[in-house]
Structure formats: C-alpha cells, structure tokens
C-alpha cells in the first residue's frame, strides 16, 4: 500500500484552489468596476479610470483561470489520486491525450472549460469592443462570477457553495479507510468512462463550450444596448460575434453527433437525447436572432425580436446547464451528470440574468425607446420573410425545449407526464416539417429585396430553380422510395435551396465570395438536410432476426427483432450480405470480434468481401463498453456493433453447455437454439432402438415435433422403467447440438418434465445498420463550417 | 395588430394545440403497475428497480431480442417485465430502471428501457474500500 507523507502533493491543490478564489474575487471586482465605468460613462475621466482598473482585474482573472486549468491538468497528469476528481476520472493506464478528456469529463471540469473560454473571449473583447467594452464586459464578468462560484467548494452558513475540482478524497468521502489511516491514497483511479475514450471527446467539448461561451457575447451586447440606450451601433459590433458563435456552436453540436455515431452504440448520430437537445435549442435561437438582426440592420424592423432571441439564446444555455447538471433529467436521460447539490446555484445563475434583462426590456418598451416602425412590413419585403423564418426556428426550439422540460414541469406541477415512448419518431415527425419550411425560406428569401420587391421578378427568377429542384428530387425520391408527404417536401425544398442559393451567388452577387457567406451556409444547411433525410429516413436494419418462427405468446414479433445471433463459422444471410462470425482477437484493452461480410449479387455470387471488427472495450470498474465498427464507402456506411456476447464480467467465455428443464403438457412448446419443439403426443409404448423390451418394462415416449428454419420432423425421447430402474433415453439433434430427455413424469397432472441440453458454439449478438449516403450529411456540415473560414 | 404579430400568435397557438393533443393522446405517463391508468390497457412508464435476487432471464440462443426481469415499482409492487430488446449490458448493476410499455395480464410488456447505473459516488466508495483491502 502506498502511504504518502502528510502534505505531499497537497501544494498543487492549494495553489489551484488559491487560483479559484483569485479568479472569483477578480471577476467580481472586474464586474463591479465595469459596472461603475458604465454608470459613469458621461464623466469621461472617472469612467476611464474605472475601465483601466477593470481591465487589469479582468486580465488578472484570465491569468487565474489559466492557472486553475494548469493545476488541474498537472494533478491529473501526475496521477495524484488523493484528489477526488483525479481518482474519479482518470487512471494510470489512461493515455496522455485522454487526460484532456478526463479534465472536462466531470461537472467541475466542464464549468472550468466554459470559464476558460469566457476569459479568452473577454480578453479579446477588451481589445476589440471599443465603446462597448464596459457594459459588455460587466455582463461577461458577471457570468464569470456565477460560474466561478460553482468551483469554490466552500461553506457559507452551512450552505455549500460550489464544488472544487481540487477537493481531496479524504475530505469529501466518508469511507472507513480514512478512520484507520487518514493519509491513505488510492493506488489507482477508477478510470475514464470508456465511452469518453474517443478522439472526438478530446475536441468536441472544447468546441461546444467555446460555442456556449461565444453565445454569451451577443447576449451581452444586446443587454448592453438596452442598458446604455444605444440602439444602432451595437448591430455592427454584434454581427461578427454572433456568426462566430453560430459557427462554433454548430460545429460543436455536429462533433457530438459524430462522436455518438462512432463511439456509442445507439445506432445513429442523433438520438434526441435531452443533453443533445439542450445544445441544439440555443443554436436554433441564435440562428433566429441572426436572421432578425439582418432584417433590423437593413430595414429597421424586428429589433424587439432581435433582443429577445439573443438574450433567450443565452438564457437557454444557462437553462441547459441547469437541466444537465442538476440531475433533474434523472429518469429521462442516460447522459446527465449526477447531482452535486448545486441546483440552487444553477437556478440562481438563470435568475441573475433573466430578471434584469426582462426588467430592462420592459422598461425600454414602456419608455417607447426601442426603434420600431409604425407601418407594417410589406409581404414582398425580405425583412418580412426573415422574420417568419426566424419564427420557424424559434417554434422548432420551443417544441424541443418543452418536451425536454417534462421532468421540470412534473416537478413544479406534480404531474406525471413521461416523454413519448418512441421519442425519436416523435421529434422527427414534427421537426421534419420545420426543416422543410426552413429550407423553403432559405431558398426564396434572398431573392426578395429589403423594403419592397417586384414579386413577379422574384417568382420568375425562382421558377427555373424550382422546376429543376422537383426533377432532381425525383431522382432521389423514386430510388429511395421516399413516399411520404413530409419526406417529399423536405427533399424538394432542400434541393430547391441548394439550387436557388447557387443561382443567387452567380446571378445576383456575381460570384463575389466575400458577399456569398450567407448563401453558401444555406447551401451547406440544405445539403445536410438532404443527407439527414436519406441516411436516416432510409436507414436499413440489416440484422433482422431471420429465425422468424412464431414462438407463441410472449415472444417478440419479427419487426422488432433487430439483433441477430451469429454462431462462429456459421454464415447467415442478411439482406445482400452473407455474414460470418470468424472468431475474436484480444488486445490488453479490447476484444475484437471479426465479422466477415460477403456482398452477394442477385445470383448469389460473391462480389466483394470485407471484415469488420466491432469490439468491446474492457473495463472492470465501469463495465465493458461496445465500440461499433463501420465500413465507410462513398455511397453508404455499414454500421455494426455487438449487442451481447456470452462473456463473463472478466471477459472469459461463459459455459458452453446450457441446461434447462421445462414442465410441459400436450401441445406445449419448448424453445431451443434456432429451433422449437412441440409436444404433440405421448406414446405409452415407445420403441427403443437397439433394445429389446421386456413385457414388464414401461417405456413412455414424448413425440416432439422438431421445427427449425428449414425442416420439421419428429423426435422421441423415451422414459424407460426396466426392472425398477428408471432410465432416460434422450433424443439428440446433432445439427443444432441439442438434446431432449424426459426426466420426470407427472401422471396426475398429465405433464412431464423435459430437460433440454445444449452445447453452444461461440456466438455473438450483433446489430447491423446501413446508412445510405450519409456522406452527403457530412459534406453539408463541411460546407457550412468552412464557409466561415 | 401587425401581420407579423398575428403570425407569431398563430405559431404559438399551433404549438399549444399540438402539445395538448399529444398530452391527451400519445404521451406516456409515469404510473405504478397497478394504478387505474395501467388497468386501462394504455401505454405507460414505470420507474422502479430490479429485483436482483430473482435475476434476469436472457437466452440469446433462443431469442436475442428479448429478456425478462422482475421490477419493483415505487409503490413496492413487483411484476414480471418482458422487454423486447436485447439485454442492455450492466443492467445487473443498475439501481433504477425505467420501462415503457403495457400490462398484458399480470405481465408488463416493455418496448423501451432506460436504466440508471449507481451514482458514481456510491459505487466508487465501494471501490475505494475494495482497493484498500487489496
């Protein structure tokens, strides 16, 4: 056992915690200084003095935040398991690059990551925000105060404020070992959750949290604008920030999808899980905000909506972190963090921003200060359609957030609503209409001019693209059999958006790349929608269990049988593939299951052969984790993952002989491997092969109808009583490695007990899904993201 | 009232309309195995825990897409639950299961299952203790 001297390695934690306190105090001081600077903005000298002071504080704050990050990385890297966070999220065997994933895998670490990006963006704002510096940074610094308080981990009047990543095991965990030996240090940590050990998990969280942090900035500008009553100039300042936030947040969300697709086994890149929804909803609001911001910039309309959407986006991010970190999603999501008892703080965080923003907004509306136009937008104006488009985004967001908030609603109103059982179809069936409308808007809106446009010209310009879109869509709709109204609409409108935006770039913008950013991102978005529609709408589960014999009551029907059993070296056919489980191979951490696919043509000839290696990441502490394996080709992805194996917990093969006793009467069915038997008749005088019965002998046979996929015949185990000795003569079916024997006869109940013995070959249970043209989806994402660069 | 405001209101009305129809029809509810709601033969969701003594019955060689277990709900009512899915890994370790489905006689037939593994904290105290004994 490892015994450390008292105080050893404690310094890092103390320094780390010192940085936390410095970061908290400096953010509070910077917030107040910027506040005074803003309040005194009329008096230049005073204001400037405050700003100068605040800048120094904020930069000091940023340095302190970097210090916290450095200390946390250091204790993780050095394997100081006396720190609970290190022990909980890492282990000695964890590769260095995953030590970063470990850093942000816990609640404290993710809060820290968020703070880190706020600090970076805040420093950029100091240099770039000019006259907006003091009000905007007041708000950013306030956000830092709220986040920083969640890392404090100190008690104030018995209320625990925050949770420090540098907390020691012995201070936070009440386990007996510390009573015997207060200096005890674990020799190894429990390790990082295996599903997080994926390269996407190294880059997805930082990107997502940069996106979250970036969303604070537009909201800060919006609040600042209301606060200092300056309604014009903020537009120019906020636009690049909001586009940046939209791009980064979007990328972060898509990376999360890519991770889920590659590392998780839920068979897809988007599962409408509450945690995913929580990041999508702010993105939708931000997209809406940017569109109304454009309308306001060019026409003077929709300023109220711009404020509401920007601030709403930020509040929804805070609300999301409440949902995921408070543990309230407990019954609804597998992914949410466990409760650290900070629900109060998380709610306070929302209230601190919600209440002042609402009061400010109402106040300014009452004062009639927010510029708006008395006359209505014309139906033929771009601003009108931008507003409608934004409403669709918001509508989609509201739908998602209401459903995701069921646990919150239940808690407040003591209701018992559960999410719909087929949550994916519920969301898909509604959101597909939103997506179709958004695509239509993206296709048409740019052709309208601000204020007023000639509708005939617009229609004339769009007509060709629309007709072409219908024709091109047919080329997808017919081969993929997308015969549903919503599928057809989404397909046609998306293709329409791709064509019309391409047309817009060349016809109106004359191919000027600098001006085409919006159009290109519309194209990317529409390409992505086409990809989603085809790959998800037409995904095909290949591993339908072919053994579709009616097992009778209580057994699964064929359509839900999406997992198939593969015995080693026994090929089965799945769709146009012949699939064989060849065996497995081990590394120290993984068991690879080698599954060969032979692609067959219509005549049954092999045209292509490849082997996939779905594997299981072994982790004795957290449970084994299946990792899918996917064959990527240009036209489709073939996704394969292991659902179950007959492995014991330690990875060794389980017993290969299975015995089971059934008590049956006439007509009953006994299930066995790849077959069933039905007790059709009891034979009171059964024949026995190679045995001459004596007159006194009793030989009772069970006529069992053996039914397998390809054959059906009778077998007959016999129960023989010969000279007071009872013997059971089993009936074997060699092909299925199964034998049936009568072990007891219960004459008064008219029943008998039958023992089924099976020798099982090595087998796996796997699921295979084909996602056609999923590359279109990734292409769309790529276009959207790289448009910005 | 402006046209845009009317459209916004229409949107809100549609949203409320869609959600209320769903609440009355398609939505599941958290109920006990023997609640009145359960007896109507409708689909509902049960939050409970696994009776670990009775074990889990999963015979993949016969049917890889089904397993059964005994679940005790929040009112301490125990039922046999047949889940029409492959057995999720680590369900034996779960401290809480959430199943959605219908009652069929005395058996609950579930088509969805979600499980909660022990909060890391508790589980790890255990591990720490084990670590100490090694």
Task: Name the descriptors.
heterodimer, A: 789 residues, alpha+beta, 6-stranded antiparallel beta sheet, 20 helices, 24 strands, 18% strand, B: 134 residues, OB fold (Dihydrolipoamide Acetyltransferase, E2P), 5-stranded mixed beta barrel, 3 helices, elongated, disordered C terminus
In short:
The complex is a heterodimer of chains A (789) and B (134). In chain A, strand 12 and strand 13 form a beta hairpin.
Characterization of this structure:
- Chain A contains 20 helices and 24 strands.
- By secondary structure, chain A is an alpha+beta fold.
- Chain A has 5 domains: 1-193, no CATH class; 271-419, no CATH class; 422-538, no CATH class; 558-646 and 768-774, no CATH class; 657-759, no CATH class.
- In chain A, the strands form 5 sheets. In chain A, strands 6, 7, 8, 9, 10 and 11 form a 6-stranded antiparallel sheet that branches. In chain A, strands 15, 16, 17, 18, 19 and 20 form a 6-stranded antiparallel sheet that branches. In chain A, strands 4, 5, 12, 13 and 24 form a 5-stranded antiparallel sheet that branches.
- The two termini of chain A are 54 Å apart.
- With 134 residues, chain B is an alpha+beta fold.
- Chain B has helices at 3-24, 36-39, 120-133, and strands at 28-29, 44-50, 56-57, 67-73, 78-83, 96-104, 107-116.
- In chain B, strand 4 (67-73) and strand 5 (78-83) form a beta hairpin.
- The model of chain B is unreliable at 119-134 (pLDDT under 50).
- At the A-B interface, helix 14, strand 3 and strand 24 of A face helix 1, strand 1, strand 2, strand 6 and strand 7 of B.
- Strand 3 (417-418) of chain A pairs antiparallel with strand 1 (28-29) of chain B, so a sheet runs across the interface.
């Amino acid at each position: 056992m490892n015994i450390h001297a008292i105080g050893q390695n404690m310094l890092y934690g103390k320094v780390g915690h010192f940085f936390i306190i410095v970061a908290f105090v400096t953010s509070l001081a910077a917030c107040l200084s910027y506040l005074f600077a803003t309040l005194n903005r009329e008096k230049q000298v005073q204001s400037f003095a405050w700003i100068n002071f605040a800048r120094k504080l904020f930069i000091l704050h940023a340095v302190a935040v970097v210090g916290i990050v450095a200390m946390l990385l250091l204790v993780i890297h050095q394997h100081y398991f006396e720190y609970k966070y290190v022990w909980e999220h890492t282990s000695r065997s964890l590769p260095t690059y995953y030590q970063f994933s470990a850093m942000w895998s816990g609640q404290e670490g993710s809060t820290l990551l968020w703070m880190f990006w706020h600090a970076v963006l805040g420093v950029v704002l100091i240099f770039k925000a000019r006259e907006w510096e003091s009000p905007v940074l007041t708000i950013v610094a306030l956000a830092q105060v709220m986040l920083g308080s969640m890392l404090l981990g100190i008690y104030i009047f018995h209320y625990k404020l925050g949770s420090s990543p540098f907390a020691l095991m012995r201070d936070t965990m009440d386990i007996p070992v510390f009573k015997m030996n207060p200096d005890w240090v674990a020799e190894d940590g429990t390790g990082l959750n295996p599903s997080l050990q994926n390269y996407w998990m190294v880059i997805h969280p930082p990107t997502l949290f940069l996106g979250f942090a970036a969303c604070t900035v537009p909201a800060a500008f919006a609040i600042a604008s209301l606060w200092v009553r300056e309604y014009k100039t903020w537009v120019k300042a906020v636009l690049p920030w909001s586009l940046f936030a939209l791009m980064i947040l979007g990328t972060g969300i898509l990376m999360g999808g890519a991770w889920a697709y590659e590392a998780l086994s839920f068979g897809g890149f988007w599962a409408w899980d509450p945690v995913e929804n929580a990041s999508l909803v702010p993105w939708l609001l931000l997209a809406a905000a940017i569109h109304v911001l454009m309308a306001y910039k060019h026409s003077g309309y929709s300023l109220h909506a711009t404020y509401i959407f920007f601030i709403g986006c930020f509040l929804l991010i805070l609300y999301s972190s409440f949902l995921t970190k408070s543990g309230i999603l407990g019954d609804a999501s597998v992914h949410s963090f466990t409760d650290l008892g900070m629900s109060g703080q998380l709610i306070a965080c929302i209230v601190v921003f919600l209440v002042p923003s609402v009061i400010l907004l109402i106040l300014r509306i009452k004062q009639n200060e927010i510029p708006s136009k008395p006359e209505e937008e014309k139906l033929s104006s771009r601003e009108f359609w931008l507003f409608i488009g934004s409403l669709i985004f918001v509508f989609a967001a509201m739908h998602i957030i209401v459903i995701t908030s069921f646990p919150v609603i239940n808690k407040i109103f003591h209701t018992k609503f559960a999410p719909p059982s087929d949550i994916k179809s519920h969301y898909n069936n509604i959101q597909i209409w939103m997506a179709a409308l958004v695509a239509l808007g993206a296709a048409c809106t740019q052709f309208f001019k601000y204020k007023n446009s000639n509708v005939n010209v617009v229609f004339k310009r769009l007509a060709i693209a629309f007709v072409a879109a219908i024709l091109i869509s047919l080329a997808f709709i017919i081969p993929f059999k997308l015969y549903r109204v919503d599928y057809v609409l989404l397909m046609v409108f998306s293709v329409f958006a791709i064509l019309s935006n391409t047309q817009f770039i060349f016809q109106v913008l004359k191919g000027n790349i600098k001006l085409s950013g919006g159009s290109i991102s519309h194209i990317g978005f529409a390409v992505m929608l086409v990809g989603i529609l085809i790959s998800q709408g037409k995904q095909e589960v290949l591993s339908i269990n072919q053994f579709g014999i009616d097992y009778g009551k209580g057994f699964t029907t064929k359509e839900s049988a999406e997992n198939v059993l593969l015995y080693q070296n026994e090929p089965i056919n799945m769709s146009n593939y012949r699939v064989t489980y060849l065996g497995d191979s081990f590394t120290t951490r993984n068991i690879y299951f080698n599954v060969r696919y032979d692609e067959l043509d219509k005549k049954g000839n092999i045209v292509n052969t490849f082997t996939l290696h779905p594997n299981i990441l072994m982790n004795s502490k957290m449970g084994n984790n299946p990792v899918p394996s996917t064959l990527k080709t240009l036209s489709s992805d073939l996704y394969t993952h292991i659902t179950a194996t007959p492995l014991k917990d330690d990875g060794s093969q389980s017993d290969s002989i299975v015995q089971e006793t059934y008590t049956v009467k006439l007509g009953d069915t006994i299930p066995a491997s790849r077959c069933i038997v039905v007790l059709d008749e009891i034979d009171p005088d059964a024949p026995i092969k190679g045995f001459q019965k004596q007159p006194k002998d009793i030989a009772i046979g069970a006529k069992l109808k053996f039914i397998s996929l390809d054959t059906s015949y009778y077998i007959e185990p016999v129960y023989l009583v010969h000279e007071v000795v009872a013997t059971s003569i089993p009936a074997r079916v060699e092909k299925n490695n199964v034998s049936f024997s009568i072990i007891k006869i219960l004459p008064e109940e008219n029943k008998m007990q039958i023992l089924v013995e099976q020798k099982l070959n090595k087998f796996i249970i796997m699921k295979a899904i084909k996602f056609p043209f999923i590359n279109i989806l990734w292409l769309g994402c790529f276009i959207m993201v790289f448009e910005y660069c | 009232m402006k046209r845009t405001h009317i459209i916004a209101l229409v949107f809100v009305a549609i949203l409320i309309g869609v959600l209320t129809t769903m609440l009355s029809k398609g939505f599941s509810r958290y109920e006990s195995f023997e609640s009145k709601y359960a007896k109507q033969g409708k689909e509902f969701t049960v939050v409970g825990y696994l009776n670990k003594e009775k074990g889990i019955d999963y015979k993949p060689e016969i049917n890889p897409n089904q397993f059964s277990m005994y679940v005790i709900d929040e009112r301490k009512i125990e039922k046999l639950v047949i889940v029409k899915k492959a057995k999720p890994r680590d369900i034996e370790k779960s401290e809480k299961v959430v199943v959605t489905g219908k009652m069929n006689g005395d058996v609950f037939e579930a088509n969805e299952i979600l499980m909660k593994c022990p909060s890391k904290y508790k589980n790890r105290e255990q591990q720490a203790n084990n670590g100490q004994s090694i």
